[in-house]
Amino acid sequence: MRTQVAIVGGGPAGLLLSQLLHRQGIDSVVLESRDRDYVEHRQRAGMLEQGTTDVLRDSGVGERLDREGLVHHGLELRFGGAGHRIPLTDLTGRTVTVYAQTEIVKDLVACRLADGGDIRFEAEVLEIDPSAPSVTYRHEGAVHTLACDYVAGCDGFHGVSRPAVPGLRTFSRDYPFAWLGVLADVPPSTEELIYAHHERGFALHSLRSPKVSRLYLQVTPDEDLDAWPDDRIWTELAARFATDDGWELREGPITDKAITPMRSFVAEPMRHDRLFLAGDAAHIVPPTGAKGLNLAVSDVTVLANALAERYASGSESLLDAYSATCLARVWRAEHFSYWMTTLLHADPAADDFTRRLQRSHLDYVASSQAAATSLAENYVGLPL
Ligand code: PHB
Question: Is Oxidoreductase one of the keywords (predicted)?
Answer without folding.
Answer: yes
